[in-house]
Amino acid sequence: MTRKKFFAALAVTGLITGCATMMSDADISKKALLVMKSSFKEKGQAKLDRLDQDEVQATCSLYETPDKVPKDVAQRLEQSQLETIRYPADGQLLGNWKAGEVVAQSGVGKQYNDDPTRPSGGNCYACHQLSKQEVSFGTIGPSLLGFGKARGNTEESRKYAYGKVYNSDAFSACSNMPRFGHNGILTEQQIKDVVALMLDPESPVNK
Amino acid sequence: MEETPRFVGWGALVAAAAFALALAPAAGAQQKSVADDIARYRELLQDGNPAELWEMRGETLWRTKRGPKAVSLEQCDLGLGSGVVKGAYAALPRYFADADRVMDLETRLVHCMVTLQGYAPADAKKQPFGDGTDKKSDNEALVAWITSESKGVVINVALTHPKEQEAYRIGKAMFFHRAGPHDFGCVTCHGEAHKRIRLQDLPNMLDPADARRAYTSWPAYRVSQGELRTFQWRLNDCFRQQRFPELEFTSDASIALTMFLARNANGGTYNAPALKR
């Protein structure tokens, strides 16, 4: 069964079992989606289909925080997301850390008021500490200061960093971090540049 | 005109305070949040707030005969009876039998503009938010005044009517609904304690103390925008950054989510319009 059919089937079941007294949590979630569909309007690049969920989003929405996701569910999601990662055909994972810093600083992209023809940023600093000189950093994600120094600029670290930025859920199910490659936020070259920012010994991350 | 000298005064004060802020040293910012700077900014304004300009305009709008029927909003029932403004905001959103719908303040105002003053719904919702220019929003002014009349009142959202309970549950589901290109839900930024985006502190809206602090500080005069921002605006702009489509003003989803967040803030003492960065 395709994902779309699966969710369509869920919706139909919900309508039939929709109840007279207290609605179940599952029914409320379905009703919430209907309410949202009638309460948002398409604007710029943000169409209404952005309210729909894929398997990861639907599953993760069932748990209040990532640590409440049952182990077997997390493992299944991580496996399915691991399979989505596409490494560069040229085998080259390390880009330019200076370009990576630009990606890490920029928070534009995918909002309805953003120009879709311009490149998106990764906005890494919104959630992570990365370098000593940038003091305006967020704390939703862990500090990545000294990431490359600690792990070494090896093929293994490059592969991990590339995969993590490409699809964070492959390593930590229901992570707060966007799936930058899988969801087409960053290009292959941009992810390579972010990997360089993380691992290049000359990058401010490792100074 | 009486307001003119006050307005100029405010402008000068805001400019002076902004200048002082710009001069603030960036050192030590690593562990310091913008909250500290805002606290200093408040001190500079000596308990004053440009939001008062919106409050004054809002009270005038409330009492002015307007619309096709040329009547004021003074008979509008905000939940505590016709024309009762004092403390009304602290019990919103709530179910209104005359509309058979749960409404937040802004939805109720649109309702009153339509039923009492005779505006077409589209006209009543024409300019919910100011755009930073001289073209100020009447909605933001009315909300500023009405909310100011709940200062010091304890938030008490009842959840007695089944439709209120359903709105709360829908709002809760929305809070955890992760979607869009970034997989974001409200919970991504507002589900954990002591987190920041860049230097901005993020309230954990699932924690009663944090939810009270955050909810009771809206609406607020936003220094960076030169506008007074309402709770509908707050939600609208969160969803923009969440990469969702645009949340429609006074939509059912906006009311449901407000219900969830307001109820989580129950017991907090209302203290707005506030002042924010």
Q: What is the name of the CATH superfamily of the largest domain in chain B?
A: Cytochrome c-like domain
How does CATH name the architecture of the largest domain in chain A? Orthogonal Bundle
SSE string of chain B, helix = H, strand = E?
HHHEEHHHHHEEHEEHEHE
Strand ordering within the main sheet of chain B: 6-5-8
Poorly predicted runs of chain B are 1-31
**Structure classification of chain A:** mainly alpha
- The top-level CATH class of the largest domain in chain B is Mainly Alpha
* End-to-end gap of chain B: 30 Å
| Total strand segments of chain B | 8
CATH superfamily of the largest domain in chain A: Cytochrome c-like domain
Largest sheet of chain B: 3 strands, mixed
Order of helices and strands of chain A: HHEHHHHHHH
> Which fold name corresponds to the CATH topology of the largest domain in chain A?
Cytochrome Bc1 Complex, Chain D, domain 2
The percent range for helix content of chain B is 40-55%
Radius of gyration of chain B: 19 Å
- List the total number of helices of chain A: 9
Largest interface: A-B, 49 and 47 residues
